[in-house]
Amino acid sequence: MLSKYLKYPAFWLKSSNQHGVHSPFVYQWVTKCLYAKPKLGANKTQNLVLQSIAYFGFTNLKIIGNTVLLGQIKKEVPWSSFTIKPLDFLFLEHPDWEEISSKLHGAGLHNNTMIVINNIHANTKNEALWQHLLGKTVFTVSIDLFHCGVLFLRKEQEKEHFTIRI
User: Fold this and answer.
1) N or C: which end of the chain has fewer CB within 10 A?
2) Is 143 helix (H, G, I), strand (E, B) or coil?
3) What's the domain range around 46?
4) What is the distance between the alpha carbons of residues 85 and 99, in angstroms, rounded to a whole number?
5) Cα(50)–Cα(112) distance, rounded to whole angstroms?
6) Sign of torsion over alpha carbons 129, 131, 137, 138
7) How much is the CA Rg of the chain, to the nearest whole Å?
8) What's the pTM value of the predicted model, to 2 decimals?
9) Counted domains in the chain
């Protein structure tokens, strides 16, 4: 756990805010969603999830490994569904390639699906899986926010990676 916090200064030095983003899609999301007030969640990941679901109007959600977040989404986003495919939004408390792969190949994800993976820098295993996911061509937009990582499937966009501090 301590090594995660030792990595943060290096992350902060290479990261940018909205001014370093050259993708209109990501710029709009960062400025109108992530940096928007009021904050909806108790921590950065919860806030990112709740604000992104509202911002994009996601209805078909899957939350794996975080029952507190699941309860908060059910309270804050009563129109959401957790059983319908294809998924608009997938949250994984722990990086899991098998879970993502099964959704990719099982018609569970579509263009514009957002995947949030918590704790991408928690340990070397999580970091290795994050790097593996960044290499997949299906994910055209990837964003490292340090405490979590975000992947988008956007066929209309060239593959880009962003490191953003929030």
Assistant:
1) N
2) strand
3) 2-163
4) 15
5) 17
6) positive
7) 15
8) 0.88
9) 1
Q: For each of the chain's 166 residues, which pLDDT tens digit applies? A: 446 667 777 777 776 666 566 778 988 998 999 888 888 888 889 999 999 999 999 999 989 888 899 889 988 888 888 877 888 999 988 877 787 777 777 667 888 899 999 999 888 888 899 999 899 888 999 999 998 999 998 889 899 998 888 8
Q: Which residues fall within 8 angstroms of residue 38, CB to CB, at 6 or more apart?
A: none
Q: Please return the burial class of 118, using the count of CB atoms within 10 Å of its CB with bins 0-12, 13-18 and 19+.
A: buried
Q: Where are the alpha helices (DSSP H) in 30-82?
A: 44-56, 67-76
Best CA proximity match to 80, nearest among 69, 93, 92: 69
Instruction: Quote the tokens at residue 156.
Output: 């209309």
Looking up residue 16, the CATH number of its domain turns out to be: 3.40.50
